[in-house]
């Protein structure tokens, strides 16, 4: 299978996927990295890893629908089977998401369904939760809501700042995102009637 990674920024999760996929036994190929921002740091990192990159600049499109149409065209042109959102900061329209249903996953820096949206580490600290973490989920039209594939939890320490907590979570993101991608590619996890079914025997 051919995987596309969509980014908007620094691309550390993208790198964790590229590095995992470089292993000879990894069952998928990172075929392309697509950014919606020309200045995304991740672009240079992908190029340095010899992964082809494409740009679909949202500023060149009048509205979300035309941006999504252009993005879809690139994915089709690149013969993509599976899409990984990795710090991709654009909301995708319903028709686009529908086209990729069961074939598009995202990583979110919180234990969903808690802390959807932005600034998750600040909010976790403000709420005083003792456990925080990250979630890989299938993408559905509503943001940060899709069926959950994998999660990792980390402790919240009294001394934490958003940065120290975020770094602890990010280290786990880099572990579970490649693992979740593998599950989906090997069809050991799939979307069935809106829920994730995981073949536990093969974990
Ligand atoms: C990560 O925290 C990810 O969970 C969130 O955006 C951030 C992207 O970081 N969706 P990076 O670009 O992968 O370094």
From TrEMBL:
Keyword match Transferase: yes
EC numbers on record: 2.1.2.2
Superkingdom to which the source organism belongs: Bacteria
Pfam families tied to this protein: Formyl_trans_N (PF00551)
Site entry (Raises pKa of active site His), positions: 144
Cited function: Catalyzes the transfer of a formyl group from 10-formyltetrahydrofolate to 5-phospho-ribosyl-glycinamide (GAR), producing 5-phospho-ribosyl-N-formylglycinamide (FGAR) and tetrahydrofolate.
Family: Belongs to the GART family.
Entry protein name: Phosphoribosylglycinamide formyltransferase
């Amino acid at each position: 299978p051919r995987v596309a990674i969509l980014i908007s920024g620094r691309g550390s999760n993208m790198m964790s996927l590229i590095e995992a996929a470089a292993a000879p036994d990894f069952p998928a190929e990172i075929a392309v990295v697509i950014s919606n921002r020309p200045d995304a740091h991740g672009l240079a990192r992908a190029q340095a890893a010899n992964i082809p990159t494409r740009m679909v600049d949202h500023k060149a499109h009048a509205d979300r629908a035309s941006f999504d149409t252009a993005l879809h065209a690139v994915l089709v042109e690149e013969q993509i089977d599976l899409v990984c959102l990795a710090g991709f900061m654009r909301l995708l329209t319903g028709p686009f998401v529908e086209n990729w249903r069961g074939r598009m996953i995202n990583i979110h820096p919180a234990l969903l369904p808690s802390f959807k949206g932005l600034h998750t580490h600040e909010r976790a600290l403000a709420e005083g939760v003792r456990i925080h973490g990250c979630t890989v989920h299938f993408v559905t039209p509503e943001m940060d809501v899709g069926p959950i594939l994998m999660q990792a939890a980390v402790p919240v320490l009294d001394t934490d700042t958003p940065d120290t907590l975020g770094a602890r979570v990010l280290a786990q993101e880099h572990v579970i995102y490649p693992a979740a991608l593998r599950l989906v590619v090997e069809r050991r996890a799939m979307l069935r009637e809106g829920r994730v079914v995981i073949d536990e025997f093969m974990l």
